[in-house]
Amino acid sequence: MTKKVEVKHLTKIFGRHVGRAKEMINEGKSKDEILAKTNSVVGVHDANFDVNENEIFVIMGLSGSGKSTLIRMLNRLYEPTDGEILLDGESITKFDKKELRDFRRKKMSMVFQNFALFPNRTIIENTAYGLEIQGVDKETRHQKAHECLELVGLHGYDDRYPNELSGGQQQRVGLARGLANDPEILLMDEAFSALDPLNRKEMQDELLDLQSHLKKTIIFISHDLNESLRIGDRIMIMRDGEIVQIGSPEDILQHPKNDYVEKFIEGVDRTKILTASRVMIRPDVINIEKDGPRTALRLMKDNHNSSVYVVDSEHHFKGLIDAKDVIKQIEDDKRDLESILRTDVPTTTPDTPIKSLLNDISKTSVPFAVLDDNDRLLGIIIRSSVLGAISGNEVQNNG
Amino acid sequence: MANLFSLTMQPIPFADWINSFVNWLTQFVGFFNGITDFIGAIVNSFQWVFDLLPVWLFIILVLGITYWALHDSKHWGLMVFELIGLVLIYNQGYWRDMTQTLTLVLTSSLIIVVIGIPLGIWMAKSHTVKVIVKPILDFMQTMPAFVYLIPAVALFGIGMVPGVIASVIFSLPPVVRMTNLGIEQVPTDLIEAADSFGSTGWQKLIKVELPIAKNTLMSGVNQGMMLALSMVVIASMIGAVGLGSEVYFAVGRNNAGSGFTAGFAIVILAIILDRVTQAFNKNKKH
Question: What keywords tag this UniProt record (chain A) (predicted)?
Answer without folding.
Answer: Amino-acid transport, ATP-binding, CBS domain, Cell inner membrane, Cell membrane, Membrane, Nucleotide-binding, Transport
